[in-house]
Amino acid sequence: MTKSQLIEAVAANGGLTRKKAEQLVNTIFTSMEEALVRGDRIEIRGFGSFKTKHYESYTGRNPKTGAPIPVDSKVLPVFKVGRQLRERIQNGGDED
């Protein structure tokens, strides 16, 4: 699903105009992005959680030449699927 498809679904399911649905989706994503930048954890019950994880620097290898390459430390967002969503996916979307 693309962002545009999500906006269309929100508009259709919520009885909103496309413009209002787009504002809503953009507000949610902006709020989530700002929370992750601050280092906050985001939990959406029944869906999953987002947090940031710090990775230390290390020496990697160029896969083509095998030459060592320094890889800088970094902070990346990670997603952990919630139990309810994981079970729904494993059951092929069947409702409990």
How many domains make up the 3D coordinates? 2
In one word, what is the shape? elongated
Roughly how many Å is the radius of gyration?
19 Å
- How much of the sequence lies in strands comes to 25-35%
Seen as an oligomer or otherwise, the chain set is single chain
Structural class: alpha+beta
Mean pLDDT: 95
Would you list the SSEs in sequence order as H and E?
Answer: HHEEEEEH
Number of strands: 5
Spans where pLDDT lies below 50 across 5 or more residues: none
CATH classification class of the largest domain: Few Secondary Structures
Reconstruct the topology from this structure.
Layout (H helix, E strand, L loop, with lengths): L2 H12 L3 H21 L3 E3 L3 E8 L2 E4 L6 E4 L2 E8 L1 H8 L6
Antiparallel strand pairs: 1-2, 2-5, 3-4
Helix pairs in contact: 1-2
Features:
alpha+beta; HU Protein, Chain A; 2 domains; 3 helices; 5 strands; 43% helix
Polypeptide structure, described:
The chain is 43% helix and 28% strand. With 96 residues, the chain is an alpha+beta fold. It folds into 2 domains: 1-40; 41-96, IHF-like DNA-binding proteins (HU Protein, Chain A), CATH 4.10.520. The protein is elongated and about 55 Å long.
Summarize the structure in short.
The protein is α+β, with helices and mostly antiparallel strands and 96 residues long.
